[in-house]
């Protein structure tokens, strides 16, 4: 649908101006841990190969930003570095592919977007009595801090001079990936 190959969905696909994959693109590493030692290498490489194929197809059809997530092959501490170019050899040739960091901030037609792959929201829900993930995301916006539980319970790189998670400017759109369900809320 996103590549415009479905005739009945061409109008809808034409309205999509950018796709952001907010982590979780490789899948769970549990199946690799349970595999025998001979099949581990093949199981470990298969999700990366599939991700590269999907990104190559989508990245040549529309602008694509791919962010790392909690179980993706990059550093664990936030801010996470982009997925390395050697992991995505086929899709790295696409000029519209952005291997983004987590968190990821960008502008699109004058709209400021900022998001994470969901680790800060997951961590805040784990250590609070608030089950509403949109409320937690709204707290981050009101507190002007993207990861308020860091570094106590959320692993982050140690910064001495500044806190990179402080929101200097309010984004128009704040998002968190890898949540149990899709939901939106307007905050004023």
TrEMBL record:
Keywords in alphabetical order: DNA replication
Gene3D superfamilies: 3.60.21.50
GO cellular component terms given for this protein: delta DNA polymerase complex
Keyword Acetylation: no
Superkingdom, taxonomy of origin: Eukaryota
Domain DNA polymerase alpha/delta/epsilon subunit B: 12-184
InterPro entries hit by this protein: DNA_pol_a/d/e_bsu (IPR007185), DNA_pol_delta/II_ssu (IPR024826)
A GO BP entry: DNA strand elongation involved in DNA replication
Heme keyword on record: no
Signal peptide (UniProt feature, chain positions): none
MF (Gene Ontology): DNA binding
Name the UniProt record assigns to this protein: DNA polymerase alpha/delta/epsilon subunit B domain-containing protein
Organism: Haematococcus lacustris (Green alga)
């Amino acid at each position: 649908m996103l590549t415009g190959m479905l005739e009945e969905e061409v109008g809808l696909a034409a309205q999509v101006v950018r796709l952001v994959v907010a982590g979780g693109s490789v899948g769970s590493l549990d199946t690799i841990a349970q595999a025998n030692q001979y099949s581990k290498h093949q199981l470990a490489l298969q999700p990366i190969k599939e991700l590269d194929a999907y990104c190559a197809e989508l990245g040549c059809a529309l602008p694509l930003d791919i962010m790392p997530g909690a179980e993706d092959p990059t550093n664990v501490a936030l801010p996470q570095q982009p997925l390395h170019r050697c992991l995505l050899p086929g899709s790295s040739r696409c000029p519209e592919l952005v291997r983004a960091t987590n968190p990821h901030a960008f502008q699109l037609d004058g709209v400021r977007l900022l998001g994470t792959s969901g680790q800060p929201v997951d961590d805040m829900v784990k250590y609070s009595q608030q089950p509403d993930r949109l409320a937690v995301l709204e707290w981050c916006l009101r507190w002007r801090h993207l990861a308020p539980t860091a570094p106590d319970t959320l692993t982050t790189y140690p910064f001495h001079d500044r806190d990179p998670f402080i929101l200097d400017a309010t984004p128009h759109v704040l998002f968190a990936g890898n949540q149990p369900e899709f939901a939106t809320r307007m905050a004023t």
